[in-house]
Amino acid sequence: MPTESPTAELGATASAFTLPATDGQTYTPDSLKGANGLVVVFMCNHCPYVKAAMPNLIRDAQALKDIGVNVAGINSNDATVYTDDAFDRMIALTKEWNLPFPYLHDETQEIARAYGAVCTPECFGFDRDLRLRYRGRIDASRKEALPDARRDLFEAMRAIAANGEAPEAQYLALGCSIKWKP
Questions:
Q1: Which residue intervals define the domain Thioredoxin in the entry (predicted)?
Q2: DSSP state letter for 156
Q3: Domain limits for position 139
Q4: Which CATH number characterizes residue 76's domain?
C-alpha cells in the first residue's frame, strides 16, 4: 500500500547534514544548493514509484540546474533488509542512469527523520536561503511514468527561483514508505 507525504510546514530551514555520495564526495546542504535553491529528493533503488519517476526526475534536474536550482537524492532505506538499496547498488544505479545529481547515503536514517520524510520519491524544495517552499511529488506518475504529466516539482521550483514564493498548489508525494530500521 502506498504512503502519502504529510502537508508541509513551509518556511522551515533545511536541516543540516553531512552525507557521503556515490561520487566519493561528501555533501552538505550549503555545498549542494544552487544560486536559486535546492531540491532534496528522498529516493531509493528498489521502489517502483522511483523507477517510474526516474526519467522525469532526471529531465527536471537538468532543467532546474539551468535556472540555478540543484538537485540531490538521498537514500535512507534500511539496506540490511532491502539489499537493493545498499551503497554499492546506489553506485551502480548512479552509473546506470547517469544521474546528473549527487546521490547521498543516509545510513543512520537521521536525515530522513530530521526532514520528516516518509516515502520515496518525496521532494523537498528549498529557496536560495534554504527555506522550505515546496514539499511533494515530482509529477502525477505513479508506478508507470506519465510522459505528459504536469511537471509539479519543476513548475514549483521555477516559481521559487524567480520570486522566492511557494506555489499555492502543492501535491503530496505518494510512493513506497521509507524502510526504517528496527
A1: 8-165
A2: H
A3: 3-177
A4: 3.40.30.10
Q: Residues 145-162: what's their mean pLDDT?
A: 90
AA identity, residue 114: A
Residue 182 located in a structural domain: no
Q: What integer pLDDT is reported at residue 6 of this predicted model?
A: 75
Q: Tell me the C-alpha distance between 121 and 117, whole Å.
A: 10
Cβ-based neighbours of 81, under 8 Å, separated by 6 or more: 179
What pTM did the predictor assign?
0.95
What are 38-49's pLDDT values in tens digits?
999 999 999 999
Provide the number of structural domains found in the chain: 1
Grid coordinates in use for 127?
A: 529557496
* Residue 122 in domain: yes
Q: What does the alpha-carbon distance between residue 69 and residue 126 come to, in Å, rounded to a whole number?
A: 9
Question: Mean pLDDT for the chain?
Answer: 94
Q: What is the pLDDT of residue 28?
A: 98
- Minimal CA–CA distance to 10: which of 162, 164, 152, 142? 164
Write the DSSP string, 28-63.
-HHHH-BTTEEEEEE--SS-HHHHHHHHHHHHHHHH
In a domain, 123, yes or no: yes
27 found inside a domain: yes
pLDDT value for 1: 67
The answer to whether the beta carbons of residues 123 and 40 sit under 8 Å apart is yes
